Amino acid sequence: MCLSQIARSISPSPTLALNEKAAILREKGDPVIHLGGGEPKSKAPMDALLAASASLNTGEIRYAPADGIPALKQAVIRYTEEFYGSKVAPENVMASGGAKQAIMVALQAILNPQEEVIFPSPYWVSYPDMVKLCGGIPVPVAPEDGTFYPRIKDIEQRINSYTKAIIINSPNNPSGVMYSEEFIADVVHLCEDKNIYLVMDDIYHRLIFDGKKPISCYKFAKDLSENSKLIVINGVSKQYAMTGFRIGWAVANQKLIEAMANIQGHQTSGPSVLLQKAAVAAINGVQSSVENLRATLENNRNVMMDYLNSFEGVRIYPPDGTFYTLADFSYYDKDSTRLSNMLIDKVQVLTVPGVEFGLEGHLRLSYCGSIKDIKEGIERMKWALDLNSPNELYIGDRKLVRDWA
Ligand SMILES: Cc1ncc(COP(=O)(O)O)c(C=O)c1O
Question: Does the pLDDT value for residue 14 go beyond 80?
Fold first, then answer.
């Protein structure tokens, strides 16, 4: 088979592959605990469900503008004012098939072949492949001090004449850490000074803990005119537990949004009008589900941290938000893929290898599931890895005997 160079350079999404693996094992009747998940378990808000079903019942679900229906643009404008303190116009907004497509289309609109995109490591699995899909070169930058907090000087050092954009995701998937206001201010200024695009992937910005407040990048921008190269990405997937609705958006300067809408128009003709209506209702509707989800995740985070704390040999970095933590398991195995496979095979616990996020020796664990799963999942992992624990473990009525050292 003759595939394009680009197709050959792209790897399958490891997180989607894991979801499939979990589904197959569950179908076989295996008692899988999925600590690799990337979506909240709560239901989509009632407002969204009612709006979608009312729209569906009309039987008239048609083509809509490629950049989003006016009602969604208005909802995003209001959202941007409320959470970012910034007034934008409909011409600055494009709705997309999830935040993922909004990022992808933005990269397609700005990147020429061989141009570089910098992002701090650990990073969301899709960034490198998205950049490669545009013919660009991903440039992950690992904090030199071994933390999850990027330093502006490390990023600045990697900027050269090929650098077209920086992507910042805070709070961060996979580490859960939220970057400081000072860092966000510095990166906004750096991009303005160097005249490069800044893509702010804010998909988790309301799912933060310990009384923290979302940070608005606009607050630090000196230039919010039509020359601004700030691209803000957000969506309904995580905060409203609407992952399957596939609605996200980008806010950027008018010329860029026009170019992005052209691209999206040829790709998909825009996201489904039905699901856009659901997103409008979620954004404009009762917001208690977001706070409920946020509080549940904070509690789950605390439970997971407690359990991991009792795990000798594992180094943890408490997350400030999201529903992930990236824990250092290198004491047990420096090869995170091998370790993750071992945990699936021996105790049916799914984790995501840190190497997929640019950090070997770590595992990404999600706490978006039930408390029971978090506790039992970590207990099983401990049993598998800590050779001082008893030789036998019961999973339901199955008795496991440790036959490995
Ligand atoms: C950092 C980050 N950005 C973007 C997305 C994509 O979100 P959506 O489901 O809206 O496409 C995800 C989903 O996992 C994510 O973790």
Answer: no
pLDDT, tens digit (0-9, with 9 covering 90-100), for 351-374: 999 999 999 999 999 999 999 999
Give residue-wise pLDDT tens across range 247-295: 999 999 999 999 999 999 999 999 999 999 999 999 999 999 999 999 9
Sheet containing 116-120: which strands, arranged edge to edge? 93-96, 248-251, 230-235, 197-201, 163-169, 116-120, 137-141
Give the Å distance between the CA of 126 and the centre of ligand 1. 9
Mean pLDDT, residues 216-238: 95
Return the percentage of the chain with pLDDT > 70, whole number.
Answer: 100
Just give the CATH number of 5-43+288-401.
Answer: 3.90.1150.10
Residues of the chain with CATH 3.90.1150.10: 5-43+288-401
First to last CA, the chain: 44
**Alpha helices per DSSP H over 219-370:** 254-267, 273-284, 288-309, 336-347
Quote the tokens at residue 269.
């003709």
Average pLDDT over residues 35-49: 94
Q: What is the Å distance from ligand 1's center to 306 Cα?
A: 27
Residue 328 identity (one-letter amino acid)? D
Point out the ligand 1 atom lying closest to the alpha carbon of residue 201: 3
**CA 101 to ligand 1: nearest atom:** 11
Residues with CB under 6 A from ligand 1: 38, 98-100, 124, 169, 173, 201, 203, 235, 237, 243, 248
**Four-way CATH pick for 46-284: 3.40.640.10, 3.90.420.10, 1.10.1200.10, 3.50.30.30:** 3.40.640.10
Ligand 1, atom nearest to 103 Cα: 4
Which residue intervals of the chain bear CATH 3.40.640.10? 46-284
Dihedral, CA of residue 358, residue 363, residue 367 and residue 370, to nearest 10: 140
* pLDDT, tens only, 173-194: 999 999 999 999 999 999 999 9
Which among 96, 167, 173, 264 is the best mutation to test ligand 1's pocket, defined by most ligand atoms within 8 Å of the CB?
A: 173
Pocket test residue of 100, 234, 275 for ligand 1, highest count of atoms within 8 A of CB: 100
